[in-house]
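Input chain follows. Return structure tokens only.
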Amino acid sequence: MKLIITLLFALVGYFAYPQSPQSQFSKEYIPIWESARRITMDLAEKMPANLYPYKPTEEMKTFGEQMVHIGHTIQWMYDYLIEGKTEGLPKSPNAAEMTKQEIIDYLSNMFDQGSYNIRNHPVADLDRKVNYFGEGEITIKWTFISIQDHLVNHRAKANLYFRLNGLEPPEYNYVKGLGN
């Protein structure tokens, strides 16, 4: 029965998220996005569960909060910046109330949603300019890149939590699939 349910979810995921990019931008960008996903998920999976509540200083996020924040803002930034939503924005889950596996599952789901957004955003809309937090305007393409830049910032912070606990962080792996 578990196998049937697993296969059902796999099929739903396969059809819910197209496997090939829809625009030239997504064809070029998806390998970079998927690399960011792979590296971030590796970090989340390799951090011991007992260190998810760790934070270097009182004012900083815990490791678990860093991972949830990364996942949350993938969709939040898309909704706010690209879709222009100001109400009904997704709420961030509370990392303190989640297990390591729940955080990993949440993060994976948000990366899936990010992949879907990149692959399926209308090609004709990619050069549209949006207000970037009152700092000026950038195109939708650059907004997608900004979403990744934000997650890399928080991933780098979380990476340091390994070293501060005497652990070796996962090795950085370069982007795979470029030029295909």
